[in-house]
Design a protein that fits this description.
The complex is a heterodimer of chains A (153) and B (170).
Chain A (H helix, E strand, L loop, with lengths): L11 H25 L6 E2 L11 E7 L6 E2 L2 E7 L2 E2 L3 H19 L11 E5 L5 H14 L3 E8 L2
Parallel strand pairs in A: 1-7, 2-6, 6-7
Antiparallel strand pairs in A: 2-4, 3-4, 4-5
Chain B lengths: L1 H20 L6 H21 L2 E7 L31 E9 L5 E5 L2 E4 L1 H11 L7 E7 L5 H13 L4 E4 L5
Parallel strand pairs in B: 2-5, 5-6
Antiparallel strand pairs in B: 2-3, 3-4
Helix pairs in contact in B: 3-4
The chains are: A alpha/beta (153), B alpha/beta (170).
């Protein structure tokens, strides 16, 4: 046996196991992220599917019994996964994430009005809870936003 | 003894022979990995769900004390910084919570109707001129977000791209 030289190591089981672990952690990560902003989006038959890579996602979800009131309603507002505590905070986070996104995409030259914003708000929430997010966009001069909706036929 | 002893090496040999007869690369690891990748994409697609992005416009916030109440069909305010004031015909769709369930919509000549009836009436009024029309949604604070999105969706179906809720009064 020693005369036949070293047998090559079979890496297939290793790749298999590592792939399974990667998938497991991706799914767990995804679930954890979803949990922070689980919203039931309003339905829509029109819209488009692709999202700009520099997009800042503002998620507005119900938060029964939560400490922060938005328009008199306990809700959870997060900007690209980071939770906001008041209206000024939404603006600050949009600027922060928007600047990073624009720099990554290499567009805009730091022009905040060109930050692509998607508002994913729960369909059952009253308008007053979503209004601060819209107001923050308006205050930053972002006149075009996209609403996250659930695609229906 | 000779039967069992002779059978085993025979089987082993035949397996080796079978492997030896198999020419070309070993496909098993590739199929393995491809299957895992396939399952991964299927699972991620199921998680992401069919999300659709609807384009809307955010009107400029009205300054304190400013009355931003143009009547339906009336000309826009002479304010260039307002994205919804660009020489277009402005329709206002007011949404308010009905005493029972649902939302009452007013606009385009319809009073306290459903959102769909108002948008149908709007569609009849603007035939062929959708690109010169803008829709300002004026929801009461308690109106569900779903209704605002519904107006946006129906306006876009009519070909109106400049549609947005009046928000942002600080």
């Amino acid at each position: 046996m020693g005369g036949q030289g070293v047998e090559p190591v079979n890496v297939t089981p290793l790749i298999d196991v590592v792939m399974c672990m990667i998938i497991f952690f991706l799914i767990v990560g995804k679930l954890a992220a979803e949990d922070s902003g689980r919203v039931k989006l309003p339905p829509s038959a029109v819209g488009r599917g692709e999202k700009d890579p520099a997009t800042v996602v503002v998620t507005v979800g119900p938060d029964p019994g939560g400490p922060v009131l938005w328009g008199g309603v306990p809700a959870r507002v997060s900007v690209s996964g980071e939770r906001a505590t008041d209206s000024k905070d939404i603006e600050r986070l949009i600027v922060e994430h928007g600047r990073a996104g624009l720099a990554l995409a290499g567009v805009g030259g730091g022009d905040m009005t060109r930050v692509p914003v998607v508002i994913r708000a729960d369909r059952r929430l009253p308008f007053s809870a979503v209004e601060p997010a819209l107001a923050a966009c308006a205050a930053l001069g972002i006149s075009k936003v996209q609403y996250g909706t659930e695609r229906v036929p | 003894m000779s039967g069992a002893g002779g059978f085993r090496p025979l089987r082993r040999r035949s397996a080796r022979e079978a492997a030896g007869q198999h020419h070309g690369p070993n496909m098993t690891p590739m199929v393995d990995v491809v299957m895992v990748i396939l399952v991964f994409f299927m699972v991620s697609a199921a998680f992401l769900g069919p999300e659709w992005l609807l384009q809307g416009v955010v009107p400029r916030p009205a300054a304190a004390g400013e009355q931003s109440t143009p009547r339906p069909g009336q000309g826009p305010k002479p304010d260039a910084s307002d994205p919804l004031a660009t020489g277009m015909v402005r329709f206002v769709v007011e949404l308010r919570k009905s005493p029972g369930e649902g939302v009452l919509a007013t606009g385009a000549g319809v009073r306290d109707g459903t959102v769909d009836s108002v948008m149908d009436a709007l569609g009849e009024k603007i035939t062929g001129a959708a690109d010169q029309v803008e829709v300002l949604i004026r929801p009461e604070p308690g109106v569900p977000w779903e209704s605002v999105v519904r107006v946006t969706e129906l306006a876009q179906r009519l070909g109106i791209t400049r549609v947005g809720p009046e928000a942002a009064r600080r």
